[in-house]
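User: Working on a comparison across species. This one is Major facilitator superfamily (MFS) profile domain-containing protein from Hypholoma sublateritium. Can you predict its structure so I can line it up against the others?
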Amino acid sequence: MSSRDSKASDEIKHIDSFQSLESVKPPALDAHYDPAFVKKTIRMIDWRMLPLLGLLYSVALIDRINLGIARTAGMQEDLRLDIGQRYSIASMIYFFPYMIFQIPGNLILRTVGSRNMLTFCVTAWGIAQLGMAFVKTWGFLCLCRVFLGAFESVFVPSMVFIITTWYKRYEVQQRLAIFYLSSIAVSSFSSALAYAINLLAGKGGLNGWRWIFLLEGAFTILLGILAWFFSPDFPDKSKWLTEKQRQMVLERVEADRGDSAADELTRQKVFTHLKDPLIWAFGLMFLASTVPAYAIAFFITIILKAMGFSTAVSLLLTAPPGIYAAVVCYFFAWLSDKTKHRAGWMVVQSLITLTGLAIAAYHPNNGVRYFGLFLVNAGATSCIPGVLAYNSNNITTHSKRAVFTGSIILWGGVGGIMATTVFREQDFPRYVNGMWATIGLQLLNIVLLGVTTFVFKRRNRLRREGKIGPLEGQENFYYTI
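Assistant: Here's the predicted structure for Major facilitator superfamily (MFS) profile domain-containing protein from Hypholoma sublateritium:
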């Protein structure tokens, strides 16, 4: 048997090992699909997945960060959050369960099923959010935040995992950006919505902040029920595509990176993946990106109020930076996919964030400081899907994707803890120490991007020279810089 025949035979065995792919041919034997058919199918997938997931993540983000809005709307006085570090602790405590369940949730996702997992998690965190409307003490508020973090923890890594299994490597960042920026755009209006809800203060004997938690929690529960009927799944398990469409999607992924078939998940594989230094590099990049994003989310209304704006104006002024960030985020995602380049654009985004932090911390004019918040939000927001795409482009196999995605987003939880602790109450209103800690993280991000670029370029060169074996176990795979 020739080496070509042997290779084709191995590829066929690899694909045949997964039951739902029995009819799929290896990349070298793929049928040629009508481009119009491919375009129509991909558009159908986009519309089925991205609006729903974007809306759910919008709600998750709103439920996660609306503590600052509620504080401005009267919760601080009712629960005495002005004592010591109560507000920072209530904000931070969410992230401990949020981190703990990231990886386990991704590891059991295929077994439990996307629809079951999604419906349970969304409904459960909606109940926790609704429960905050009725807490009488600061301690019970923290307890509800613990449950909120536990149930939200599984959602984001699961959705990133699922999205990255549907698309080719240089299609994925725009999809992740749409998923993420739609949440940023929607959540940017959460303050305006909260302001409207706050007008219900006194109705039913509830203060305005209680109405915020009550109505937003009830809406989340409703979305959890709807998720049962419309949530997506992995390509091989999807029931809403025709057999030809499903086969085309799987063949595209197989030809692009060779991991359309789910490999067996074992304990040894999990520990092997966790020992890969790249997982820590990507995780620290995600940490550096999420700290400024969370800082803006938790403290923007407080910073604006400290500038002298009224409560109503402070709530309304939180929307424009978010809308601007969504536009910039999509622009960089489009540019990154078009140029098939990741690291360089993320360096630019980190520099934008760094510039905005310096302006917000030190400029004497409040209008210019407000502009600095635009830059911080835009740079950090753009980097988040960038890191996820950079990671997903440079790994293969479902097991590694599950472990890496869960671990990286876990570092986002660390970023949330840092954002709520380095922006200390005693540093109000400019939070200079927090600004400098975040500036340091942007410099770390730039260094890490330089290191990974060097490593990937070197490995690609050695592979082309035949000095090392196949990268990521795939014959024609090369790292994305």
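For your comparison, note: The chain has a mean pLDDT of 85.

User: Helpful, thanks.
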